[in-house]
Amino acid sequence: MFPAPDSVKLNSPPAPVVILASMMGISAAAARPIEYARDVAPILDARCVTCHRPDGGGPFPLQTYAEARKHAKEITAVTARRYMPPWLPSPACTNFADARVLTTNEIAAFAGWEADGLIEGDPANRPNPPSWPGGWLLGTPDLVVTMTVPYELAPEGKDVYRNFVAPIPPHAKRFVRGIEFHPGNPRVVHHAFVNIDPTRGSRRRAEKESPPGFDGMQLPETAVMPGGQLLGWQPGKIPYLGSEDLGWELPADSDLVLQLHMHPSGRPETVQSAVGFYFTDRTPTNSPYRVELVRFDIDVPPGTDDYAVENSYVMPIDGTLLRISPHSHYVARRIQGFAEFPGGGRATLVDIPDWDFNWQGDYRFAEPVSLPKGTRLSMRFQFDNTTNNVRNPFNPPKRIVYGLQTTDEMAELWFQILPDHREDRAVLARDFLRYRREVLIESHRLRLKKNPGDGEAELMLGSALNALGRTNEGLPHLEAAARLRPNDDRVFYEIGFFHLGAGRYADAKPNFEKVVALNPKDSQAHGSLGIIAIVQGDYAGARRHLEEALRLNPEDTLAKTYLDKLAAAGK
Ligand code: HEC
Fold first, then answer.
1. Which residues contact 123 (CB under 8 A, 6 or more apart)?
2. How far is the C-alpha of 38 from the C-alpha of 126, rounded, in Å?
3. How does pLDDT run across 45-74, given as a tens digit for each residue?
4. Which of 104, 258, 292, 421 is deepest in the core (most CB within 10 A)?
């Protein structure tokens, strides 16, 4: 399905490109010499200036003859090594749109230009360079949402992960065809994830912590990439305008939540990123779904370079793969994704031989890949936790386990899949959520086997079993979690919820009481206590808890409904 690589290897020593060039007749002195205007500028314009321009992420512009000439030697060297343009997938992955892979002719042209004496040529021969009105590659957006206040990034210190919340002007529901992210300060913004929060969850978190943002890699559950989208950005990302019929819905009155990874530059910097939205009036005829293969039980011993984790999922419907996106941290080395087709045959969907966290992104298939029902999607992540891995955060290497900090590890491969029949999306969603819970259960069981007494794993395992309706199996794990983490309100919330679901109000009540004692700000626990009080005939107590739930979360429509009912009943 995917053609073999054109004999290109990553990390190979510089090829003798000058010889190659003359062999191919590109620089043959007998023909004509290579000139900037006619031969080199079009390659730079097509392959380099998305980053090497004032608003791009590159360290210097390559838009004029003088600029290209100044860096000519380096250009020859970095293109021959395939260090530039940066692109993680192996050149064997030929099915990606916007792949930043130079052809051998292009590499030879740079070398030939240098060998021929860096001639400018007649500027009239230069094809028009690309131009971006206002810097927007997709043209002027319908709506631009900018971070409300610029962020002051300290000159020194560690990389910063920070989430910024900006209100999207309230308007009727609109369908989004595409977005374009502007970093604001491309020197320091390394990558970004664009999320939408239809509630005030992220805003409240920012207000509580440090408005207008909050630190860390973990967002509230309500901040998501909607409609099966993959909305990541890294320097050089080419934004994409999808088909008019496949827009995604921007919920009215929602917040933009930008997760930025920033890298101090040695001097004070300000960052004020923006997102341009491009709308369509057409109601979507279908919408993609994200299948996320993950592994939670990563445990990489120090000094090994062959530790690997795998996982797979079988398609319950006919679908089409549009994009793929791997995510991992610093000790991951090789990342692969495959499809095994029900009729036989197997395709390599992505193969990244030398993963670099700083260049993570998603890849769009130029030719979407058909995934008939029964196709097995799989991933394999191999880790290098030795000193040979220059990105290893620890020297000497340390044991590295699953976690959200960058010095922990993760292994996720996301697939953006369009159901072939729109009504099958719900089938896929249901089946995938079941699968995901089973993965959670399996990995927490493994975690517990390794570390009996891991209260977090007991809690996760108990919650996942409950969510699958396997409550008899779940409760003992929640009880173990309660013994191990007597001050963790989440444990008592789960136990309370378990009893509430079974109608055992008297058993549920002390657990929710414990939750609000440990965390008085838990609006949902107050709501549950309100409902229990109604059932038990304690209307004054019910009003007190429901009012508190509504005060803590003004969008708690359930609390509001019950309060209205109490008022209507004169209680
Ligand atoms: C996706 C963005 C991107 C694209 C596309 C890109 N570059 Fe770069 N380039 C960078 C960044 C970021 C750096 C600085 C960090 C680094 O060296 O990795 C860089 C550094 C360089 C350097 C300095 C390397 C060094 O060793 O200091 C050269 C030369 C260069 N690029 C040439 C090119 C050429 C030629 C092209 C097109 C064929 C190109 N780049 C395409 C982002 C890009």
1. 37, 65
2. 5
3. 999 998 999 878 889 999 999 999 999 999
4. 258
